[in-house]
Amino acid sequence: xxxxxxxxxxxxxxxxxxxxxxxxxxxxxxxxxxxxxxxxxxxxxxxxxxxxxxxxxxxxxxxxxxxxxxxxxxxxxxxxxxxxxxxxxxxxxxxxxxxxxxxxxxxxxxxxxxxxxxxxxxxxxxxxxxxxxxxx
Length: 136
What we know:
Shape: globular
Largest sheet: 8 strands, antiparallel, barrel
Radius of gyration: 17 Å
Number of strands: 8
Strand content: 35-45%
Mean pLDDT: 83
């Protein structure tokens, strides 16, 4: 009986996760409509992770919570939205889902096995970027 009691919550969690995964990821048009003009703060494991401002023309500004901004671009590649900041990390691809909890971003570089980023907040306030000629 004890094994059954423990198995039920795990089965329920797996069902919820599978239902969320059954939602198709956003394509370029959906991602652009959902993000352009917004600055979104993302969390990982419940902790603030980084902030991204989505600009017209598939351009972005990204900053980890306490660092300089990186200027980049994004494009669709298959079901993934890929970002390029012209740095040593190269192109990084994600699947984005618009969920009732907010925007969910699943990194695909590790086979999709890492903890997803979840949007904590969204605003229309530009990202405050230190450094010359970046941001506001």
